[in-house]
Amino acid sequence: MLLEGLKPGLRVDGLIPAEVVTVIAAQWHGSDALELTYKTAAGGLGQQVVFRKDQDKLSVAQTGSRAFDANASDFKLVAEAQRISLAGLFDPMLAVATSDVQPLPHQIRAVYGELLPRTPLRFLLADDPGAGKTIMAGLYLKELLLRDDVKQCLIVAPGGLVEQWQDELFFKFGLRFDLLTNQLMDSQVNLNVFETNPLLIARMDQLSRNEQLRAQLRETEWDLIVVDEAHRMGAHYFGGKLEKTKRFQLGELLGEITRHLLLMTATPHSGKEEDFQLFLTLLDRDRFEGRQKKTTDTSGIMRRLVKEELLTFEGKNLFPERVAETVPYELTALEYALYADVTHYVREGMNRADRLGGKRKNTVGFALTVLQRRLASSPEAIYKSLVRRSERLEGKRQEILNGTYRESEPTVDLGEIDEDGYNAEEIEELEEDLLDAATAAQTVEELNAELIELAELVKTAKIVRDAGTDRKWTELSNILQDEVLTADANGWPRKLIIFTEHRDTLDYLRARIGSLLGKPDAVRAIHGGVRRGERRQITEEFTKNRDVQILLATNAAGEGLNLQAAHLMVNYDLPWNPNRIEQRFGRIHRIGQDKVCRLWNLVASNTREGEVFTRLLAKLDQMRQDYGGKVFDVLGEAFTETPLRALLLDAIQYGERPDVKAKMHEVIDASVGDGLKDLLDERALASEHLAEADLQRLRAAMDEARAKRLQPHYVELAFKAAFTRLGGRIARRERGRYEIANVPQHLRSAGRGPIATKYDRATFDLAHCDHGCKVVRWLIEFRPVHRMSCFPSVMLRNAREYPRTVGTVPARHLDPRSGRARRGGPSWR
Question: Which residue stretches, if any, does this entry annotate as coiled coil (predicted)?
Answer without folding.
Answer: 427-464
